[in-house]
Design brief:
This protein is mainly alpha-helical. Strands 2-1-3 form a three-stranded antiparallel β-sheet. It has eight helices and three strands; from the N terminus they run αααααβββααα. β1 and β2 (about 130-140) form a beta hairpin. It binds manganese (III) ion (MN3). Manganese (III) ion (MN3) binds next to α1.
Amino acid sequence: MAFELPPLRYSNDALAPHISAETIEFHHGKHHAGYVKNLNGLTEGKPTASKSLEDLIGTASGGIFNNAAQIWNHTFYWNSMKAEGGGSPEGDLLAAIEKDFGSFETFKETFKKTGLGRFGSGYVWLVLDGDTLAVRDTLNAGNPLTDGQTPILTADLWEHAYYIDHRNNRGAYLDAFLGSLINWAFAAENFAAAR
Ligand code: MN3
């Protein structure tokens, strides 16, 4: 079966005004959909067509890796957000963040600083690395799975993620992501599944 574009869990205007319906129409409807179309074109009639995205992220290179990882990364990014998100995590995840970063505030500062420090396109992630939560960034389509780390949540840092709504101000976009958009229940599910 061909690779498919997963539908969003929310309507296109659910994240406004932080991320507008126009951004979602392009980012999900054109960019994310484009990676699916590209991967289907690259794998059609080949053994790679029946592999999982995780398999391709772990084993492929070049265009197949880039498009498979971009499909996975975008689905994970959409799920990392929700309408009226933000706030703070609870329970085990909050306790682990406080243990590994010192405080929730320090986590947020680290996430924003790391996202701002990523030169060019990529992602900033909260990951579980062994037994420790950490913030890291990846370049272009990079995914922490290739380094044996488990993604907990991510923010897309490509300009197409924020340019319509925040122009060049990646910091304002990251503030909105941290303050108003993060789906901490999704992060908690990933954290619980990884331990
Ligand atoms: Mn993107």
